[in-house]
Amino acid sequence: MPRLPMRSLLGLTALTNLAAADTDYTQYVNPFMGTTNGGNRFPGVVAAPFAMVKLGPDVQSGTTDAYSGYLASGNVWGFSLTHESGTGGAPKYGVVSQMPVVGTVPNPLADLSQPRASADVATIGYYKTSLANGITVELAASEHAGLYQYIFPNNTTPNIVVDVSHVLPSFRGLGWEQHYSGGSISTFDDGHYEGSGTYNNGWNLSPNWNIYFCGKFEQKVSTVKTFRGTGTNLTSYGKGGTVSGTDRLGAVFTFEDATITSRVGISFISTTRACANLDAEIPSKTKLQALVTQAKSRWNTQVFSKIRIGPGANNADLQLLYSSLLGMFTIPSNKTSENPKWQSAEPYYDDVFTLWDTHRCHTSLFHVLEPVAHEEFIRSLIDIWRHDGFMPDARSSNFNGRVQGGSNADNVLADAYVKGVRGNVNWEDGFAAMRTDAEVVPPNNFDPKAPDSSTKEGRGALPDWIKYGYITPAFTRAVSRAVEYSTNDFGLYQVAKGLGKTADEQKYLKRSRNWRNHWNPNATSNGHSGFVVPRLANGSFVPQDPLSCGGCYWGDAYYEDNPWVYSLNALHDIGTLKKLSGGDAKFVDRIDKLFDLKIFNAGNEPSFLSPYLYNFVNGQQWRSVQRSRNNVGNLYNAGASGLPGNSDAGAMEANILWQMIGLYPMTGQTTFLILSPWFPQMTIDLGNGKTLVITTTGGDKNTAPYVQSLKVNGKQWYKSWVTWEDIFANGGTMDFVLGSTTMGWDTGELPPAPASGD
Ligand SMILES: *[C@@H]1O[C@H](CO)[C@@H](O)[C@H](O)[C@H]1NC(C)=O
Ligand SMILES: *[C@@H]1O[C@H](CO)[C@@H](O)[C@H](O)[C@H]1NC(C)=O
Ligand SMILES: *[C@@H]1O[C@H](CO)[C@@H](O)[C@H](O)[C@H]1NC(C)=O
Ligand SMILES: *[C@@H]1O[C@H](CO)[C@@H](O)[C@H](O)[C@H]1NC(C)=O
Ligand SMILES: *[C@@H]1O[C@H](CO)[C@@H](O)[C@H](O)[C@H]1NC(C)=O
């Protein structure tokens, strides 16, 4: 916990600031959190939040997909500078690599992989792998460059192999594997090398994209040989110089020293820029430790110190808190000034993986903790629309894709708008970008998984949405898309209202209610009637078991979850949902059934909000607390297997962080549902000197989590919710009395259900 300086006689504010600056929060961070058990988080070096370079090992283990490059067991076959974090689907990136090899290298195209001698070691800004052949590899980085430090066994010949064709493979057979399509490398007399690689496909079905690199060694290169070939067949292997083309190709650097330090810069624009990035950020003779110190300082200042915990917290909770914050801001990547597609004064962020995952609760915490980056991110989404035609739902290698449900950038923009994000955001353009999603059918990209309409961007099923007010089975994922399109249109309503566009305001509010058109009151399951189901063009509902979603995938009526879950997902229209469900008691029982029937999946985003909808019934908030603790909070820890599902670019981590804070956001609205905070005292730095201070007394995370009473900004509080204005806009306080007894303290006005008129 934060170490309070003993120098007193400074004002309280000064004390708090000193405490923040003095505390090294990185001591609580486990970079391996969520790396196994399907979490797929990236444990390697990320020198600052949103850094473009993510330097770490690439591991192979049979036909297991290594989504972030890393696997806990298996052979290391390179250390590359680009990775995603926490994604599913298929691996992306893992390009621009080096691999150290001992002895002679008869064939650099052969399998050069090595088992580890021991488990990898990582702290913020630092990574170490010990290979079975005696080589130790240590890594550090800056935002656009990496530093490799190799120690070879004595009395061996050290080599570094640079294989331009190195890219993370996928073995799933879904057509989402990446391909190397060519490259070039040039070696120079001073021992440095430059070049580029071209790759395509991956989960977002990207066309060819290029990356440029510039590598230098601190030690003298004794010999260099370039190579090329096909598969593992060498067709040339000779002196340095330039090789290029569509073959596999690269270079082998051989040294006399046993300790080799290499610095490698990357760029999406040119080799010149890759070298400039390198020399600006990691000049010659930079010490690895200096980069590590810099990385720790960046993460402490920019991220970790934003949430400060008072005395009385246990270490495991602090580790979960700060390790989750690392996972939240590892991606997207800030590629401002590294956009190869257009020139613009706007910021540019890539590796959005995906808004389908992150809009539900990452978006609002991103805004609270990193308002500067969040505004840049919003501007970047709008600038992508300006130049690529649509905002992304997902994006990597500078290419939009894929869209799983709705156009959720609409929800992200609406959330920012209603919470007063203005700054340098051009909101007329922002609304125009949202309107494109709502009115323009994106060109079909003929995705083999869903050939009916675009999976690249926008709303592929828009023709039905506009014509019928629902989506027929002519379109895949018809029902889950319809529910999401409703929330997207609610986002347009919110922004149109703010901008004074009255006609659009009315239009999109009406459209946001269209999820109701999929509601079949006669669909029944486990004592409940009324579920969202498929609907034909002639208006008939299709018979549907509410417990089943068929294959739950790209070609089915529901994506990744079933009718029970999607029926609770129109979060802007909960008043109607309660009515359609049969009133308060039935509604409470419906949420209970998610758990009784084991439908609830804490590891999948469409389930995220459901456990807290009890707050929409007076006196039932304690049930949300119970779920928060027993069905969500207890599934997480800071260990390697500590995430209940894919990190999904930090969506899963944001979910646990909100539980710890004791609030849950309703994206696109200013409402936060009240849960139960984990810590005796938490101070959230909101920027510009504003703070939100949340205290609890009488609580115990496991045995006494229930709210007995609450004061907000010093006033007794009876509502199960607060607004952005109450506690975030200008800061505020929330003082909870917690206990082991369930209490119906929440007798006040219910949370808003802004679309629940007719
Ligand atoms: C190599 O030899 C040097 C000098 O004896 C020694 O300091 C170093 O630890 C040895 N390195 C390894 C990896 O054994
Ligand atoms: C490598 O060369 C051998 C012999 O010419 C040939 O049979 C084999 O198909 C080649 N493999 C690849 C991957 O090109
Ligand atoms: C993003 O990158 C640009 C260019 O390097 C930089 O000016 C900006 O401050 C970065 N944003 C954040 C939030 O670090
Ligand atoms: C539901 O069933 C009742 C009774 O069979 C029927 O009258 C009604 O039309 C049905 N409603 C719908 C929407 O199918
Ligand atoms: C709609 O079409 C389906 C399938 O052709 C048919 O079974 C159903 O009876 C039709 N409903 C109406 C109201 O015409």
Automatic annotation (TrEMBL):
Transmembrane segments: none annotated. The keyword Glycosyltransferase does not apply. One of its GO terms (biological process) is carbohydrate metabolic process. It holds the Pfam family Glyco_hydro_92. GO terms for cellular component: cytosol; nucleus. PANTHER family: ALPHA-1,2-MANNOSIDASE FAMILY PROTEIN (AFU_ORTHOLOGUE AFUA_5G10520) (PTHR12143:SF38), PEPTIDE N-GLYCANASE PNGASE -RELATED (PTHR12143). Residues 274-739 form the Glycosyl hydrolase family domain. Keywords: Signal. Residues 1-21 form the signal peptide. Residues 28-267 form the Glycosyl hydrolase family 92 N-terminal domain. This is Alpha-1,2-mannosidase family protein. It comes from the Eukaryota. One of its GO terms (molecular function) is carbohydrate binding.
